[in-house]
Design a protein that fits this description.
By secondary structure, this protein is of the alpha+beta class. It has helices spanning 12-22, 24-45, 141-205, 211-245, 271-281, 283-305, 337-346, 365-432, 438-453, and strands at residues 6-10, 50-62, 74-88, 93-106, 114-127, 254-258, 309-322, 325-326, 332-333, 349-359. Strands 2-3-4-5-7-10 form a 6-stranded antiparallel beta sheet. Strand 4 (93-106) and strand 5 (114-127) form a beta hairpin. The longest helix has 68 residues, at 365-432. It is elongated.
Length: 454
């Protein structure tokens, strides 16, 4: 019906499930996690093979430079096709495979037909100092750090989920508390109305002055004001729970009715054991340890960068050639790539090369500063880890004290409530016998309401 809000019963478990599934902060963390996962894949992409190819053709006119070339202009035509595959490996090693084919033709008197050459070359490079290590984390520092960042993002997700769970539980129990507080206010209002009816009877029989009725009416007005205030608190707590659950717009017009029972259980605690458990399980500690590993990876890499660069490179080549053939009668048999390929396959004309390159920066100031900065970062992370341990120790001890205090407070408040209930009964009996006043009964009723709230 229009104007009447629908009621929906909701458990704590359902509230938590909805909040985790729909909360926008968690969706943002999922996006951040996907972005970090892509960053990791990008670091691995540099180890994928790279294939490049080139096809070129060129034609050029020139004057003869030798008498054997004739007196007329010379036209040269060159065609090239080349394909190269390159791949980086671990431990500072890389290799490449190059396939190069060349066709040339010149119309001078000393040259005839097409000349074909082909070469297949397998080459390698191996870093021997800087960039070399049997520890894969040094040549692949970027990948290892990216993997650590992915784990850190997953821990950030855990922290966000934990925050959402805590906030949802707080909002849920705040709503329960507001509803219970409203019940207390309504009960207190009902007691004031009962006192008002008793006063009317006393006035009618002449045992109470009419002025006392005014005081009772004022007390009813005060408690009605409390009911209105607590009704507003219920609506505010309900909106807070809807917000953390990120409910759709239409559900904001639904009244939430919590169904979770108020169970009070006595927890067994061990301060020392709980602290050790927190150090091993708290996400903040695991996150700090992962950040420490990342900074140590950077430190190792910066230490490796201090060394000179010594690179061993080499190659093995199989060459193939084919020249045009001039037959009797002046006919020309052109050379073909197939013949050149055959010589390459048969390794008729092999060749090899080795080179050792040394690059040394005498002062190497930039590398030294980078290493010093990495050392500072490691020390900074160590201090952050110690600060986190201190914070966790303080939080565990604080939670331990709050639990102990809550146990004692609950027992004390339970006793106080029973006392206030008995006190009100006694005060009402005294009032009926003319031994108490309206003001005193109202005060005892307020004390009972406070005890019920606590």
């Amino acid at each position: 019906t229009q104007g009447v809000a629908q009621e929906k019963k909701i458990s704590l478990k359902e509230s938590l499930k909805t909040a985790v599934e729909r909360n926008l902060d968690i969706h943002l963390e999922k996006i951040n996690l996907d972005s970090t996962r892509i960053d990791l894949e990008q670091t691995r992409a540099v180890y994928e093979p790279t294939v490049t190819s080139r096809y070129s053709t060129q034609e050029e006119d020139s004057e003869p430079v030798r008498t054997t070339q004739g007196n007329a202009g010379i036209t040269s035509k060159n065609t090239q096709f080349r394909a190269t595959m390159t791949k980086s490996e671990d431990w500072g090693f890389g290799w490449n495979l190059d396939f190069n084919n060349f066709i040339s033709e010149e119309d001078s008197q000393e040259s005839f037909g097409k000349r074909v050459s082909s070469a297949l070359t397998l080459g390698f490079e191996q870093q021997l100092l800087k960039g070399f290590s049997l520890d894969r984390s040094i040549p692949r520092t970027d990948e290892y750090i990216a993997r650590g960042n992915l784990l850190i993002s997953q821990m950030d997700m855990e922290l966000k989920v934990a925050d959402i769970i805590q906030n949802t539980e707080n909002a849920y129990w705040d709503l329960v508390q507001s509803i219970e507080q409203l019940k207390v206010s309504n009960q207190s209002l009902e007691l004031a109305k009962q006192l008002y009816e008793q006063n009317k009877v006393k006035i009618e029989v002449g045992t109470l002055a009419p002025i006392e009725l005014v005081n009772t009416e004022a007390e009813i007005a005060d408690r009605e004001r409390e009911v209105v205030t607590n009704e507003n608190a219920v609506h505010a707590a309900e909106d807070a729970l809807k917000k953390v659950m990120n409910l759709p717009q239409d559900d904001w017009f639904t009244t939430l009715n919590p169904t979770e029972p108020l169970d009070i259980s006595d927890l067994t605690t061990d301060l020392k054991a709980d602290f050790q458990k927190a150090l091993s399980q708290r996400v903040e500690m695991r996150k700090n340890m992962r950040q420490m590993e990342n900074t140590q990876l950077t430190q190792k890499k910066r230490g490796n960068d201090l060394m000179p660069e010594l690179k061993l490179s080499g190659s093995y080549t199989s060459n193939g050639f084919d020249l045009p053939e001039l037959r009797q009668g002046g006919s020309i048999i052109d050379s073909t790539l197939i013949d050149a390929f055959s010589e390459v396959a048969d390794r008729d004309f092999p060749g090899w090369a080795l080179a050792l390159d040394l690059t040394w920066t005498p002062f190497n100031k930039a590398a030294k500063l980078n290493k010093a900065k990495a050392d500072v970062e490691v020390r900074r992370q160590e201090i952050i880890t110690e600060q986190t341990k201190t914070t966790i120790r303080e939080e565990v001890r604080g939670a331990y004290r709050e639990l102990e205090s809550a146990k004692k407070t609950i027992k004390a408040n339970d006793k106080a409530l029973r006392f206030r209930e008995e006190n009100l009964k006694a005060e009402v009996q005294k009032f009926q016998n003319g031994l108490s006043t309206n003001y005193r009964v109202a005060e005892v009723q307020k004390e009972l309401a406070v005890a019920e709230s606590q």
